[in-house]
């Protein structure tokens, strides 16, 4: 009798199969199972009764081989704990199958679609007490974010181009506003908040220590008369962050606010998830 439990996660799925297969004690090497999976990807023949095309082999990833799969587990935190940032992953756990060849037959019968997926490029396999745990993943691509100074220039140009034209922010109409200039102190306040969000894994205008944008600007040495803040998470470029703010009425209002005369910008990347956090501070000095 087989039972299947599936938890759907963002860009990931956990598959757990319990198979009543006879236990064996030979060919228990995870390396052998990985070789069998790659041999199947190279010449699959069929999948679910239909012809299947060959796909590229999977790279063995030691970090993935340390992940244990359990019913009800969430794969994303397990990947983070293993230090493997991925933008797609899925895992299969097979119990009561100890032999690599038997495990491969079970995987091919029930999970050939996952084994032949082109959405993954790496694999880890490990023997569990009852069988095998297999994790397939695609790592985050290497990010090529520009240098902080280049980001500041790019955001300033995009924001000033937006302020140069009348604009509707939701139901509110704004006339064109004078251009902003960069402030190193506001840059520091923005970078500090982005770094705090990235390292502590939260997304809020209020930091974990209770501080808000006005507090952070003062700590950076900026005495403000008016101040506002835009934050974003997940955008892969400065242009995408600005476009998102302009599409959001509240953020757009901050950008178009003629009371603001200076701006700071900063980003930080969470080292485990690879997620980018953006902060823009807009203000006028006393």
From TrEMBL:
This is Cysteine-rich secretory protein family protein. Keywords: Signal. Pfam families: CAP (PF00188). Gene3D superfamilies: CAP. The keyword Hydrolase does not apply. SUPFAM superfamilies: PR-1-like. Residues 157-281 form the SCP domain. It comes from Pseudoduganella lurida. It comes from the Bacteria. PANTHER family: SCP DOMAIN-CONTAINING PROTEIN (PTHR31157). Residues 1-26 form the signal peptide.
């Amino acid at each position: 009798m087989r039972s299947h439990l599936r938890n759907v996660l963002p860009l990931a799925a956990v598959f757990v199969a319990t198979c009543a297969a006879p236990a064996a004690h030979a060919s228990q090497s995870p390396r052998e199972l990985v070789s069998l999976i790659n041999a199947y990807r190279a010449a699959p023949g069929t999948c679910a009764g239909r012809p299947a095309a060959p796909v590229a082999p999977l790279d063995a990833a030691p970090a993935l081989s340390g992940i244990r799969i359990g019913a009800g587990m969430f794969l994303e935190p397990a990947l983070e704990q293993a230090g493997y940032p991925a933008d797609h992953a899925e895992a299969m756990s097979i119990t009561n199958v100890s032999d690599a060849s038997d495990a491969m037959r079970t995987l091919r019968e029930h999970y050939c679609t996952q084994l032949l997926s082109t959405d993954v490029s790496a694999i880890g396999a490990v023997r569990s007490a009852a069988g095998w745990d297999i994790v397939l993943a695609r790592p985050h691509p290497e990010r090529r974010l520009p240098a902080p100074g280049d980001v500041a220039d790019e955001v300033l140009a995009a924001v000033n181009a937006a302020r140069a034209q009348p604009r509707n922010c939701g139901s509110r109409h704004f006339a064109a506003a004078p251009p902003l200039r960069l402030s190193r102190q506001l840059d520091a306040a923005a970078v500090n908040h982005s770094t705090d969000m990235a390292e502590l894994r939260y997304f809020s205008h209020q930091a974990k220590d209770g501080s808000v944008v006005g507090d952070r600007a003062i700590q950076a040495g900026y005495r403000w008369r008016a101040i506002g803040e835009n934050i974003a998470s997940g955008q892969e470029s400065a242009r995408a962050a600005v476009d998102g703010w302009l599409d959001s009425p509240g953020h757009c209002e901050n950008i178009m606010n003629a009371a603001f005369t200076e701006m700071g910008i900063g980003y930080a990347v969470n080292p485990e998830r690879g997620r980018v956090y953006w902060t823009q501070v807009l203000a006028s000095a006393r």
